[in-house]
Amino acid sequence: MTAMRKIVTGIGATAAAVGIVLAAGPPATADGKWCNHSVCIETYDHGTYLGRVEVSVTNTNQPHRISARVWTTNGWSAPTKSEDVATFRTYRDQAYPQRHFPAGTRLCAEGFRDGASVGLPCVTLTG
User: Fold this and answer.
1) What is the DSSP string of 48-107?
2) For all residues of the chain together, what is the average pLDDT?
3) Percentage of residues in the chain with pLDDT exceeding 90?
4) Closest C-alpha among 114, 108, 99 to residue 52
5) Mean pLDDT in residue range 7-27
6) 51, pLDDT greater than 90
7) b vs e for 20-59, b when ≥16 Cβ sit within 10 Å of the residue's Cβ?
8) Cβ(82)–Cβ(29) under 8 Å?
9) Residue 21 contacts residue 68 (beta carbons within 8 Å)
10) SS3 assignment, position 18
11) Are 5 and 124 in contact, with CB atoms under 8 Å apart?
12) Phi/psi of residue 51, nearest 5 degrees
């Protein structure tokens, strides 16, 4: 049986921004993709273990310097590389926590275009 995570923020904005229909009631599966405005966070592991977390930031019709940071509410964090991104290109990078987190820990990623925040998806790890 797969452990579950709940979508905890941005469900309305996420659905509108990426054209996805999401139900607010039941939690999402442990591995999945969650978005808020122009930023998505994707996990590939099950339960409260996170080996790799991918962050993507969708760019606009102007070139920007894009970066992101990933963190958990129990103290783990990692910046991602900064990259000059051309128009209409998606920036992607990974962070590698490679550890188990306590159930209830929130995993968040914030994306930046030229230093300005453009989205902050978060999910809660549940066992």
Assistant:
1) TEES-EEEEEE--SS-EEEEEEEEETTS-EEE---EEE-TT-EEEEEE---EE--TT-EE
2) 80
3) 65
4) 99
5) 34
6) yes
7) eeeeeeebbebeebbbbbbbbbbbebebbebeebbbbbbb
8) no
9) no
10) helix
11) yes
12) -95, -45
CA 85 to mean position of chain CA atoms: 19
Predicted TM-score (pTM) of the model is 0.75
Terminal C-alpha separation, the chain: 11
Rounded-to-integer distance, Cα 112 and Cα 38, Å:
9
Residue 127 pLDDT level (bands cut at 50, 70, 90):
confident
Q: Where residue 121 falls among pLDDT bands split at 50, 70, 90? A: very high
Query: 16 exposed, middle or buried (CB, 10 Å; 0-12, 13-18, 19+)?
Result: exposed
